[in-house]
Amino acid sequence: MRILAVIPARGGSKGIPRKNILPLAGRPLIAYSILAAQAARSLDRTVVSTDDEEIAAVSRALGAEVLMRPAALADDQAGTREVLLHVVREIEKTGYFPDAVMTLQSTSPLRTAAHIDDAVALFEADATADSLVSCIPVPHIFNPCSVMRKTPAGYLESFLDAPQPTRRQDKEPAYARNGAAIYITRTGRLPEFVFGGRILPYLMDEESSIDIDTPADLVAAERRLRERI
């Protein structure tokens, strides 16, 4: 399959200002996604989509292809799907028509080239899959079967309508997306969704799934990255 990887990197991060290019274990945060994509054997082409000239300059210095996005896709209301569609439409003008698009969020610095290649191999092996999502198993205490809500009278009841098992081993396994470390979408389905239809799960471990959303996440990721050196 021809796989186009897109790394969305908006300049106006609110939670952690300038997050995409903050230093992390000696490199800008976005470098980890760029370098992982460059080392992956399964990707045809990788593009950083940004509205920010500094992010663009850092990405180009790392050898990445950069596509500047229009102002309409630069605010925090812009959806990932619209950003991906913009990249695909611009890339198709060059004569390159990808079979699928992989989304690599720059906030997942512990995702590796091996994860990327494994996910692509899983997706290629299933001709009926429409998309793939990286995920982690949900611990049994957070399993939907364990979730409860408070009634207006102040008592607890199961969040789900049907009676739920109490023993851990009786609870059906549940999975959660891990911060969009890896999405794969067949290009023909991209006008409808980033992930949807027949969704393949790609399981990742908790450590590799760290998603940078808070300063505490930066500290945890820095520690893990330095342990890998």
Overview of the molecule:
The protein has helices spanning 29-39, 53-61, 80-92, 113-124, 215-228, and strands at residues 3-8, 23-24, 27-28, 45-50, 65-68, 100-103, 131-137, 148-150, 156-158, 175-177, 183-186, 199-203. The protein is α/β, with parallel strands linked by helices. A hairpin with a 5-residue loop joins strand 8 (148-150) and strand 9 (156-158). The longest helix is centred in the C-terminal third of the chain and has 14 residues, at 215-228. It is globular, with a radius of gyration of 19 Å.
Short key terms for the protein model shown above:
two-stranded antiparallel ribbon, 229 residues, single chain, eight-stranded mixed β-sheet, 12 strands, 26% helix, alpha/beta, 5 helices
SSE blueprint and pairings:
Blueprint lengths: L2 E6 L14 E2 L2 E2 H11 L5 E6 L2 H9 L3 E4 L11 H13 L7 E4 L9 H12 L6 E7 L10 E3 L5 E3 L16 E3 L5 E4 L12 E5 L11 H14 L1
Parallel strand pairs: 1-4, 1-6, 4-5, 7-12
Antiparallel strand pairs: 2-3, 6-11, 7-10, 7-11, 8-9
Summarize the structure.
26% of the residues lie in helices and 21% in strands. It has helices spanning 29-39, 53-61, 80-92, 113-124, 215-228, and strands at 3-8, 23-24, 27-28, 45-50, 65-68, 100-103, 131-137, 148-150, 156-158, 175-177, 183-186, 199-203.
What structural class do you assign from the helix and strand content?
alpha/beta
Spans where pLDDT lies below 50 across 5 or more residues: none
Summarize model confidence as the mean pLDDT.
Answer: 92
Provide the gyration radius in Å: 19 Å
What is the count of β-strands? 12
Describe the global form: globular
